[in-house]
Amino acid sequence: MSFSSLGLSAPLLKAVEEQGYTTPSPIQAKAIPAVIEGQDVMAAAQTGTGKTAGFTLPILERLLAGDRVKPNQVRALILTPTRELAAQVHKNVEQYSQNTRLTSTVVFGGVKINPQMMRLRQGVDVLVSTPGRLLDLYNQNAVRFSQLEVLVLDEADRMLDMGFIRDIRKILSFLPAKRQNLLFSATFSDEIRQLAKGLVNNPVEISVNPANQTATTVEQCIYPADQKKKAPMLLKLIQDNDWQQVLVFSKTKHGANRLSRFLDEKGVTSAAIHGNKSQGARTKALENFKTGEVRVLVATDIAARGIDIAQLPQVVNFDLPHVSEDYVHRIGRTGRAGATGKAISLVCVDEAHDLFSIERLIKQVLPRMELEGFPVVNKLPESRLDTRPIKPKKPKKPKKTFQHNDGQRSGENARGHKPVSKNRRHAGNAKPATASTDGAAKPQANARPKPAANRKPAGASPQRNPKNNGSNFKAN
Ligand code: AMP
């Protein structure tokens, strides 16, 4: 199958070609014609499937046909949970629309609102936004929706996890009732289905997993450690193995800062990203990490979500996450697209409980390693695999959303805690080292959530080579 058979016009086909894409991914093959036809779409697709082009290209196609946008109006609105994802999606919108007259912009918190208001004055065909900043802009009369034709909720499950449900409902109440709705989510929990009920009409349902997951292997192990020795242990691991690009997860923002400073002092270039950092600082850190200027990126879970980093060889859990599913998301950032990745966790005695929960979730005891020169004083108890099935937790109301100011938007509140809706999915037979691809199949209305291992973390993609020849994706 080729892109030209999907109903896209010449300027969009040219942009696709310029990106180096030759074959549509499964989700693109299904979503593009459906969206061009004007149908609502509900898609179970994670980052890495090509979903962004899957909704952006046909939206642009539709917008090419309609009236020009009026001042302060928006014709297509794409909502994303994080600033990073908003920026990435917008980058794609810019790339795909470069040969057209269509305009676009991105708005999110953490940066000045005035330039965004100025930009919106002329109106934009496509607006990519995080929910909080959009509400702020709407409340200040900077944006109007009477010309709105299409709404996209991207990574809807993350939006709910991050407590954005009220913001989303509020935004929906401002939009014209007659519009096209596209809902993208990695999983379809009860909460998402509830949201979808009031959102999409008679949708085309699409479900895909990222290609190449079957070939993906992640070598996992833990290093039992004394808490105070973790930083020098990490340094030794980086130096001994000559790791050039490491994503390190830290539980807290302060911990991330401290560790980053320590590594820098020892001559290993490092940067920290978390919700207390300005948007500029986060973007710069990420860029420097991508280009290799910075060897180690220390991130909190929320800050790392939605980050588009090409396949990472090495992920380190400096602290284990309290939520076991986050472990699966974290290690899913390595070993993509058939390559082997390594995920190492430094685990102290206080984290024994978190470790056992993770091992229960992934149904395997993680191999333990020792690092020369770091004998462990506070011994970590032996693991004994708990094979009892994990019961799904009862759904609970999402926590109150955060204030709509600029500072703390992006999923972490002022104290650095992330709001997690309590009905986080539990993986059944999660097996993070390998996960299967099922091509395209319909999500069933009352299907159980997919195992966490089959979900890819937001922002993770198999390969981010713009001159990709399409081999990331199974031809449909
Ligand atoms: P996404 O799932 O939208 O985050 O896309 C994942 C990555 O795949 C991005 O880096 C895209 O540039 C790339 N991509 C999207 N569509 C295609 C395609 N048809 N062929 C090759 N690469 C693609």
UniProtKB/TrEMBL annotation:
* Ranges of residues in domain DEAD-box RNA helicase Q: 1-29
- Where are the compositionally biased (Polar residues) regions? 462-476
Q: Which reaction does it catalyse?
A: ATP + H2O = ADP + phosphate + H(+)
Residues of the Helicase C-terminal domain: 236-382
Q: State the Gene3D superfamilies in the record.
A: P-loop containing nucleotide triphosphate hydrolases (3.40.50.300)
Spell out the Basic residues composition-biased ranges. Answer: 390-402, 416-428
Q: Where is the composition biased (Low complexity)?
A: 440-460
- UniProt xrefs under CDD domains: DEADc, SF2_C_DEAD
**What ranges does the record give for the region Disordered, renumbered to this chain?**
383-476
Q: Where is the composition biased (Basic and acidic residues)?
A: 406-415
Q: Any idea where the Helicase ATP-binding domain is?
A: 32-206
Mind listing the UniProt keywords for this protein, alphabetically? Answer: ATP-binding, Cytoplasm, Helicase, Hydrolase, Nucleotide-binding, Ribosome biogenesis
Q: What is its EC number?
A: 3.6.4.13
Q: Which Pfam families match?
A: DEAD, Helicase_C
GO MF, one example: helicase activity
Where is it mainly found?
Answer: cytoplasm
Enzyme class, UniProt record, top EC level: hydrolase
- Motif, Q motif: chain positions: 1-29
Its localization reads:
Cytoplasm
Q: What HAMAP family would the database entry show?
A: DEAD_helicase_RhlE
For this chain, the family text in UniProt reads: Belongs to the DEAD box helicase family. RhlE subfamily.
What is the protein name for this chain? ATP-dependent RNA helicase RhlE
Name its species: Vibrio algivorus
Q: Which gene encodes it?
A: rhlE
